[in-house]
């Protein structure tokens, strides 16, 4: 029987995710996603749910491959799949046939089904590095404390970015005593020598996670062979355990409209920020966010400025850009970088 159009799209999504894994230096995830896309069958409930996926399964929509991969990693980490765990990193990259032999029985575990119900939430703390670099530009421009408002905040780990330490092209920043050090590969001049002072921090997410309760879920979404990312996340979770940041449950557009309507304290810079989150918002929400920022920007001034800092894919989904818009001021392309924040090429084009 020929595969349905839906099944073909699902298998193509796994192939595309494998391609991204190769690009991002994850050979295990490349092999895992390619194998699932090629050999997954309808013999299990998991297989039937995945291959019959009713919506867009690709990495930039429902991210179905990452949902399943996260569930598998969770079972491995929990000790529920010992034969599969024996082939997972840090073990050597397994060949396809033994990996599939270990995968097949695990795909029958109903514990995987809940992992298909919600989008991945990695809360990638490596992205705090480009965001901090952008905040240094904001701090140099306005020289006053910042009020952080994060869209798609997940567990709020990037709201703690001032509590991490950084080497940004030779420019130190953040807390020098922090257990988490972020030092992305850097090209170009360093960001400004400025001080980021956080007056307040708050975020929103459609499904907020608690770093003290949901740490294992966050760790499961990290690709198993990216050991540095796992270590960074564990350190960030330890920081967040002592400093919980408020993350509200809700739609990003409505939440931001409400926050922007609140009185801004003079002498603070209001900064709306997000990283690899905007692509997941509905088109209507994106339009409302842009409109709300433009409207709020009309009332911004030198003592109460507004900034929009985002680390997101460009319109063609080819490159990740760090962009900053300020009111007063204008828009600037600050850098291009790795999706996980592991590398940055600093540009810092003049304001326009």
Give a verbal description of the structure.
The chain is α/β, with parallel strands linked by helices and 352 residues long. The chain has 11 helices and 12 strands. The chain folds into 2 domains: 5-116, no CATH class; 125-346, no CATH class. The chain has helices at residues 5-23, 27-39, 45-51, 64-77, 82-85, 96-106, 128-142, 215-220, 227-242, 252-261, 283-298; strands at residues 146-151, 165-168, 171-174, 181-182, 185-187, 198-205, 247-249, 269-275, 306-313, 320-327, 331-337, 343-346. Strand 2 and strand 3 (171-174) form a beta hairpin. The radius of gyration is 21 Å and the shape is globular. The model has no long low-confidence stretch (mean pLDDT 93).
Quick tags:
alpha/beta; 9-stranded mixed β-sheet; 3-stranded mixed β-sheet; 12 strands
Rg of Cα set: 21 Å
Summed over residues and divided by their number, the pLDDT gives a mean of 93
User: How large is the count of helical segments?
Assistant: 11
Instruction: Please give the share of residues in helix.
Output: 25-40%
What's the β-strand tally? 12
Measured distance between first and last alpha carbons: 58 Å
Order of helices and strands: HHHHHHHEEEEEEHHEHEHEEEE
What structural category characterises the helix and strand content? alpha/beta
Beta-strand residue fraction: 15-25%
Summarize the main sheet: 9 strands, mixed
**Shape annotation:** globular
- Which spans have pLDDT < 50 for at least 5 consecutive residues? none
Question: What count of domains describes the coordinates?
Answer: 2
């Amino acid at each position: 029987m020929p595969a349905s159009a839906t099944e073909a799209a699902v298998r193509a999504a796994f192939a595309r995710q494998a391609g991204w894994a190769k690009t991002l230096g994850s050979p295990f995830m490349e092999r895992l996603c390619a194998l699932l896309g090629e050999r997954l069958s309808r013999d299990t409930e998991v297989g039937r749910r995945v291959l019959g996926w009713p919506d867009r399964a690709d990495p930039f929509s429902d991210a179905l491959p990452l949902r399943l991969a996260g569930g598998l990693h969770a079972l491995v980490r929990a000790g529920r799949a010992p034969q599969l765990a024996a082939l997972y990193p840090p073990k050597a990259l397994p060949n396809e046939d033994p990996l599939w032999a270990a995968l097949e029985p695990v795909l029958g575990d109903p514990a995987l089904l809940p992992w298909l119900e919600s989008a991945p939430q990695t809360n990638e703390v490596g992205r705090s590095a480009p965001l901090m670099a952008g905040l240094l530009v904001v701090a140099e421009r306005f020289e006053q404390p910042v009020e952080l408002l994060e869209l798609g905040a997940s567990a709020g780990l990037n709201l703690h970015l001032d509590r991490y330490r950084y080497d940004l092209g030779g420019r130190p920043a953040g807390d020098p005593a922090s257990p988490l050090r972020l030092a992305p590969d850097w090209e170009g001049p360093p960001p400004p020598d400025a001080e980021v002072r956080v007056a307040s921090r708050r975020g929103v997410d459609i499904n907020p996670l608690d770093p003290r309760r949901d740490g294992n879920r966050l760790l499961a979404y990290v690709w198993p062979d990216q050991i540095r990312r796992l270590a960074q996340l564990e350190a960030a979770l330890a920081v967040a355990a002592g400093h919980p940041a408020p993350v509200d449950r809700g739609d990003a557009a409505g939440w931001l409209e409400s926050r922007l309507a609140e009185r801004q304290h003079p002498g603070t810079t209001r900064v709306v920020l997000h990283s690899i989150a905007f692509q997941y918002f509905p088109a209507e929400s994106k339009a409302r966010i842009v409109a709300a920022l433009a409207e709020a920007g009309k009332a911004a001034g030198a003592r109460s400025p507004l900034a929009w800092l985002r680390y997101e894919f460009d319109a063609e989904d080819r490159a990740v850009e760090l962009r900053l818009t300020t009111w007063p001021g204008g828009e600037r392309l600050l850098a291009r970088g790795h999706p996980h924040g592991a590398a940055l090429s600093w540009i810092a084009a003049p304001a326009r």
